[in-house]
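Running low. Any example?
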Amino acid sequence: MASPSGSKRGESRRPWLWSTPTLLVLLLVLTERAFAEVPVLGRWQEFAYSEEAVNQEAAIAYASRLAALKRQGQLDDDAQVFARVRRVGGILIREALELKPSGRRWSWEIHTTSGGDERAFCMAGGKLLFSSAYIRRLDLSESELATLIGHEVAHAIAEHQREILSEVFYRNTALTPLSVQTAMVRFDTNWSLQIELAKLSSIQESEADQLGMTIAHNAGWDSAGMVSFYRKLTAPERESALGWGYPTASSRLGMAETFARLYPRNASLSPLRRHEAG
């Protein structure tokens, strides 16, 4: 695959780079600019912020969210679901680190909430949160749960939040560069910006589907459960809730069915039981 460094992408998308005062200011942060490839899938990414800077701000935001949930009595309050998520998630993270060794230096965290605002999300540096109510509502089997968690773990090792925030940075027309914190707030609160970046968001969701299934498959989970998980998402009320930043539920199901044909597996012993036996 050709290096992205020869791309002329910046000439068409960033006219402000021709402004000398802006260029001089941005030189202060050019040392953070970097390229990387999404593990396994190989798509090139361009980053304006360092991994450390993004992970640090994500950890602050994540801790704030957990503190709010704890005050409301909604953090890890379903002990059964929390235990399941921690067990399955631990296996998937270990498998994912084979694809992203640099993720071993991250402080990974997994929590659950009974609050209604989240279904599942991942923040940079391996900060994961899952809705216990959502997991119960979908009545997820072990393999289906591994598909859900694998999707979020995939977002982490693909550094999707770092990429999105970098795109927010590149769209900034002010003479001073955005801090990571400001970029986070701007993306979370600016609908027009979210719409502008919807195509990238959809690409990232597709990547998380593919990479998440690869992680779950490598860990030993049956691909039939991956198909059944995405089939559950095709219910009309669930598909409409996903929004415009996602591929359609039917296309995600089709991708899972293709994956299952390419990588069938009928495990005689589940990864959880093998792990416990070992």
